[in-house]
Amino acid sequence: MRDEAMVSATGSQGLAQRLRRTARILLREAATAFERTPLEVLLGACAAVGFSLAMERDKLEPFARSLAAVGIALPLTYAASVLRERGLVPAWLRWGISAAAVAAGAVWGFLLLDPARVADVWRCWLLCGASVAALLCVPLLDRDGGDRRERTHRFVARLAARAAVVVAYAGALWIGLSLALAAVNGLFELHMDGKAYGHLASALFILMPPWAVAAGLPALVAPIEPWREPQLRLFRRIGALLLAPLLLVYLAIVYAYTVRVLATGEVPKNLVSPVVIGAGLLIVATTIALEPTHDDEGAAGLAWLLRMAAPLLLPLVLFAIWAVSTRVDQYGWTEFRYLRLLALALLAAYGAAALYRLLRRRRPPLTAVPAVAAITLLLAAIGPWSAPAVARHSQTGALRQLLAATGRTGAGGAPSAVEPAVFRGITDKAAYLRGHFGWTAVREVVPWIGAQPAERGGPPFYATRIGIVERMAAGMTRVVNARLPVGRGIPGVERGTLFPFESGPAPAPRPLQSGRPAGTAGAAAKAPQPGQLVVRIDSASGRLLVAVPAGDTLVADVTSLVQALIERSSSRTGTLIYEGRPRGNREEQAASGRSFDLELDPGEVVQPLRHADGRPAGQLVLLRLQVESAPAAARPGAAAAPGSGPPALPAPVLRVRSAEGFVILSAPYSSTVIRPTPKTRRSLVSSTTR
Fold first, then answer.
1. I need a surface site. Which of 49, 128, 228, 627 has the fewest CB within 10 A?
2. 265, 331 in Cβ contact below 8 A?
3. Which residues of 122-158 are buried (b: 16+ CB within 10 A; e: fewer)?
4. Measured between alpha carbons, how far is residue 464 from residues 404, 461, 540 in Å?
5. pLDDT digit string (tens) for 268-307?
């Protein structure tokens, strides 16, 4: 027993010593990394603290600004540290480059960036990408006289492997610590909210990666050693089992779609360019990752595929350029279209260079890729030919042309009725300019649009501010949904008995079943029962028919109100109505009409209720009314007489589709006891709580 206790104590002591030794090693490496690259560690700490503070205050805009500043400055400061570690620049120049990078990132992130503008977000991503590409250009400045291609590949491979391992480690650690945190929260009933997991993610995914990558700086600049057989075997397996199948699948998909487009003559879909760009980026990344296979005798087939991949992609890139150019001709430039076309142009240049080098029996391009990417991304982010500048010029010019076609030059007067394509173009481009470049960009083109509102607004908002209305095409149905606003009083209501009602369209006829004749579904339920009141809609005449228990049928003629609502909707935009269930792209769907939402005026909701001979019998108070203006040709049996030539366009048919409100009956009906039904009770509750 004594020996077992001594062994147990010795084992426990050994484990404790190992843990302490591991902790000391980690702390020493962290301190060394901070001493070697203090600025990179501090930038990561600033971003992590900014995220935690923004999460606590529920304001992510400060974090977005700090993240943009760090994303631009961090790769450049790390590039300066790598140059200093290689002995390529003196210490003062290293700190000068780092200070300039931090200053540039801070100016952009905290002074120039507006996270609410989409164009600034695009520009931020481009600047961050240019900064990362500039970091990958560091091996090109080395003066050791070695092979630049080999140096570039080793540097990119080491940096990518280090970053991937750090991110994977942070993800695994976050999962484990999150489970532990959840266990502690449940066992000790701490009632922690979700922000605790956010703070943990901030420490592991924002603070730790720059620190951990900086700790690998000595390995990043270590001398180049020949590849060993286990490493080459790993490259062969990754290439043969993962990357090569992906390349072949992507190329097969795009080639099959290209053949289909050429055979059918259809316009290529907008999705073809992202697929081709994805295939091109996969080819470039695979070429860089599998660079050692070119000297590996056991990977001759894989090396041949790498040499052939980019030339095989070249025709597909030209096809995708045609697809994007078609969209640009139709809708103008946007940042996304600009960058897609730019990426395709770069891939076309890469494919052409790879084809040239294939004919010369050389490897695909590699050394110049980071430099070309850095320069291109920088020019796409800033300057007169940048993506935001080109998109703003294109959309502004298109909006001016559309406004000139309408003849609209200022505010005031009746709204100008314009064609649907022009209407959508004006409202879409105005919304685009505001979302991407701010309200001032819209006011430059439309000076009379007024001050910037607090809400975003949609097409009706821009149409009202600009002074246009969409001209509905012939044969389209106009559906108006009118409601009495909540809290509005109703003047002119007389004394009587109040009955709520809710009436909808007549059900469709049902086929023969069990030998019974066909009829209207639910007709029996619509018939007045003893002690009940029923309101029916006479769509043909625009009247509401009220059947009372005494057997009489009262009439409320709402034709004038229906006409007024239809005329009022002519100055509104409305939303499209599609026949059936939309499938695929809505731009390819045929719209059958438009729907409009209006407010009922309290002075027009009270309608007289009369007997068939015109004697007054009460009032009908409307809370909701849905009306329709349909083309006359849509009526069953409406057709032109044979041989009479093209018929004249008849006036549209006005219909009442549904109604909801109250019926007020005067004497002698006010003394009649009417028993409410469950539906009447539900109608009363829904009507009085709107």
1. 228
2. no
3. bbbbbbbbbbbbbbbbbbeebeeeeeeeebbbbbbee
4. 17, 5, 34
5. 777 788 888 988 898 898 888 888 888 777 788 888 888 8
d(CA 327, CA 394): 13
Say which residues have a Cβ less than 8 Å from residue 361's Cβ, sequence separation at least 6: none
pLDDT for 538-597, tens place per residue?
Answer: 766 677 778 776 677 888 888 888 888 888 887 777 777 776 544 444 444 566 788 888
Helix (H, G, I), strand (E, B) or coil at 173: helix
Average pLDDT of 409-422? Answer: 80
Q: What is the per-residue DSSP string for 478-499?
A: EEEEEEPPTT---TTPPSSEEE
Share of the chain residues as helix, strand and coil, in percent rounded to the nearest 5: 60, 15, 25
CA gap 393, 344 in Å, rounded: 22
Task: Name the 3-class secondary structure at 507.
Answer: coil
Taking each helix axis as running N to C, give the angle between helix 387-406 and helix 420-437, from 0 to 180 degrees, rounded to the nearest 10: 150
Q: What is the pLDDT of residues 555-564, one digit of tens each?
A: 888 888 888 8
The CA distance from 402 to 423, in Å, is 9
CB 390 within 8 A of CB 443: no
| pLDDT at 516 (0 to 100) | 41
Mean pLDDT, rounded, for 199-210: 87
pTM: 0.75
| Secondary structure letter of residue 641 according to DSSP | P
Residue 664 — pLDDT band, cuts 50, 70, 90?
confident
Phi, psi of 667 (to 5 degrees): -60, 145
